[in-house]
Amino acid sequence: MLTTLWNDLRYRVAALIGRGRLERELDDELRFHVELEVEKLEKSGLPRAEAERRARVSFGGVSRTKDDTRDARGVARMEQIAQDVRYALRGMRARPFFTAVIIATLAIGVGVNAAMFGVLDRTFLRAPAYMIDPASVNRVFVDWAGPDGKRGAQVNVSYPQYADLARWSRSTANIAAFSYIGLAVGDGSETRDMPVALVGPGYFDFFDARPVIGRFFDATEIAPSGGARVAVLGYGFWQRQYGGDRSVIGSELAVGNSRYRIIGIAPRGFEGVSEGRTPVAFVPLAARAREVDRHFATNYGWTSYALIARRKPGVTAAEASSDLTAAFRRSWEAQRAGESSLGATDVVRPEAIAAPVQIARGPTAGAESRVMIWIGGVALIVLLIACANVANLLLARALRRRREMAVRRAIGGTRARLVQQLLTETFVLALIGSVVGLACAQLIGRTVSGLLVRSPGEFSVTTDARTLGFGVILLVITTLFAGLVPALHAEGGVLADALKAGTRESVYRHSRARTSLLVVQIALSVVLLIGAGLFVRSFSHVRDIPLGYDPGRLVYVQVNERGSKLTLAQRIQLEQRLEAESRTVPGVASATPMASIPFWSTEGRAVHVAGIDSVRRLGRFMLQAGSPDYFATLGTRILRGRGISSLDRAGTPYVAVVSAAMARALWKSEDPIGKCFRIGADTMPCTTVVGVAENVHGNDLIGADEFTYCLPIAQYYAEFGSPMMTTLFLRVNGRPDDYVEAMRSRLQRLLPGPAYVEVMPVHQLVDPRMRSWSSGARMFTGLGALALALAAIGLYAVIAFAVAGRTQELGVRIALGARPAHLLRLVLGDGVRVTLGGALIGIGVAALGGRALEPLLYREPARDPWVYAAVAATLVAVGLVASAVPALRATRVDPNVALRTE
Questions:
Q1: Which of 162, 488, 651, 882 could be a cystine partner for 796, CB 3.0 to 4.6 Å?
Q2: Residue-number span of the structural domain to which 234 is assigned
Q3: Total-model pTM
């Protein structure tokens, strides 16, 4: 069967390619048979002319015989399509501007949607590369009720909890723990924080991946009791860092505080369950965990590991969740045996959830995921607008060819044949537009991925079969949507009327269809522009949130000691040297050491106040420490009292500056200056409040006011020792990004041994917290602008075509005394009426659907009248501009020429 089909296909293709040769052979063969018949008739006594006539009659006509022979080849339809393609290409060359507008319009629609599909596919749909049977794999989340009764799912568990789930679960065939963290990789000044995958037993069993060279970990190297210092390099890192040198196997790489022996290279594209954070290396989880906590395998309090689980055959995700919940509750009871403060199982009701592997589809997915889905829908709207615009342009061209189509019908062309030709022309345009759009999608995709995804990774359209396949689907959809309606309108109707009618009648008869398409474009554009306005306003509200510091002028410096054994005195000396050196860098206005980094690493300690039974129930109190330049460096205002003084040294009475929210929560309307609170325990020495500072956001951008207090750094060291890492904040005069490399190279020279310094602008810690609003504002605005431009092109085309079709009418009006201003108002009025009609429909749709968008906005109502009014005014202005050129052309119509126009 397949062999027959293959041979038939080969024959048809060969017949199509060798069409010229076959036609010559057919002519020769028919000529030969006709001559034989002529000679036979001549021998019977007939004259030559009569013999030729009778020979042709006996064959039934040479042309018909040729047609029958071509039909027998089975390539007639293919020849028709090839003929239609050639005709379409000639038409495109004859109208280059028209062709360019259609191709650009389709390229925009296809390119934006292909790029968005690529981003959404990687975020929501695509399983990790090389994963075996991804439908049976789940990411495991845990959940329980807090003291306030609220539940909050989390992705990380402790190693003992993982071991309990693996031991007591009956529905899973394999559970593996892993963690993707940033660690110091490299030596000396080349050291950088890079993503490293910490993987536990069974992790690689989830994947059908084989090392390029070397091997993966064996059971003893990855076991919690083993934890050998071995590493498997990521393919990309191996290429960048080692140039693909195969002799790298056996050499050592500094990762974190230790050196790891390289034993293998992961295959190209293998990232594990990375969520876009492509790891430079895979190392045994136990090897790294033991460096931080020797008792990690029994410490229930250290929740640092994510879990993936493979369900047994026939087990559903719901059944796995129920089974894992039972195992997790047993683990909770085991943890309670050593932690009496842990809530009772029947009170906190711990649960485990077998969720999709893609974290964007899990219970911890945030506003960014919802914004991405909205933007995907917006991209489809842009495609609809592009298709409607192209349909309008093609309809205008098809109506001009209405008489041509009628003539074709009159001489024998079938309706199906004419529709095929028009659809083929549309297909050629859509194919070229789709190819250009996919080429643009590569650039668009990188931009969109950078805006929407925290760790976008590599984006490639040309090497992604799924995105290319989606592009093919878009090609078919755009061809049918944009070409079918114009084709049917141009070919339909009564044949006699079409032969008698001129352009003017066609314009009036079909203006309603074109106007309807235009109204749809404008309405959809209004919806997008209103969404853009709402997100822009929301983003503006977020940016106006007073953080209590100025991230646009701050750089933070953090020292990773990387195993260097420094005493407290040595750490303080190193900190002082780094602070003094940083102040010598041109452009650095001030500097201060700090104990916590906002939105990165904050320290919370219990606070005790006389007369308040439980301060803890009020919320979490965050500790900060700094030098006398702390508040000036951060730009935090002192509202009452004073800041930190140079006199606040070790050995002097403890003092603190508290936030306004903390002062209000603890002492209500009383004056907080001079009040006493104790840190850590109620037996600790009294810390006296000497100042009140404005509130600082260090953990939650839009939540309730946070409770913070700042100690003098010298007293902090004396009471609590030094923090895990030495940290400085620098205030600079200029863009913080411009100081990063110079500061890093300058301070690195002061560090001992393997220690290295990381320098980062503070805004890089704050900006991700605003990503959902900023990406929504930028994407909605960009796509809304594209939609508006397409709608403007469509409006211009409709008005210009209407003016061209009304040339005779306009000439009569001018001949009867109509003034240019009257004609200008006439044409502009048509454009404004269409624009207002589309704008009103779009405003109604936006008002009805706005409630669904409101949860993604910040302090911005979904029916903000200012946004609606601004969009309406913008649409009217664009409508006037788009209609102005055709309107001016109408005022310059020559009555003599117009009255002679058919």
A1: 882
A2: 134-357
A3: 0.76
